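Try it yourself: sequence plus zinc ion, in.
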Amino acid sequence: MTGAGISTESGIPDYRGPGGLWRRDPDHEKLVTIGYYLADPDIRRRSWRFRRDSPVRAAEPNAAHRALVELERAGRLDRLITQNVDGLHQKAGSDPERVLELHGNMFGVVCVGCGERSTLDEALDRIDAGEQDPACLACGGILKTTTVMFGENLSEDVVAEAAGAAERAEVFVAIGTSLQVMPAASLAALAARSGARLVIVNAEPTPYDRIADEVIRDPIGEAVPRLVARLTA
Ligand SMILES: [Zn+2]
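Structure, out:
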């Protein structure tokens, strides 16, 4: 299971972490809170500009993402649960069928009115052409990225599949996540309770360090390839 920490070495800031954008500008959180987003066209215009200017669009996977592809190819990775919406696991070559995105993905767009699906690129093309808050072409409804915003429910199917993976894991590795947001925190606990060895790779302490079999504080880009080498030996 991966969190924001695996992508910081790809140049994607941890918006919620220490020094993160959301701590410097609490107003920013409104851009990704569904109530504000639906109610206020200005929030939507700012939210689309935030997506357009996001470093995620140009980001490349790093050594840790690539190591997890190796783990999969060695037949040792069952599911890759992620809190990230940056798509870097798939971009690195992870099988999309095995990637469970708890918080969705920012490269898809959905209409909140009729459910019509499109892509971020299509929406940004319209924004570049002068529409600041593009509406659904099918019904005129409000469009949003397929990320799970604050105030929205996670996909029950994704959470259930992640819980199943946690229950059957022999080793559950939590990488670059503070394990303070649900359901990520409960998945680590569920895995440990179900008999998995729990390995935590994170720069900062987490609430689950004391029940972990191993805690690794080294930089993720070095620690994960080393760990994968051990798991595939
Ligand atoms: Zn629509």
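One thing you can check immediately is this: The longest helix spans residues 156-168.
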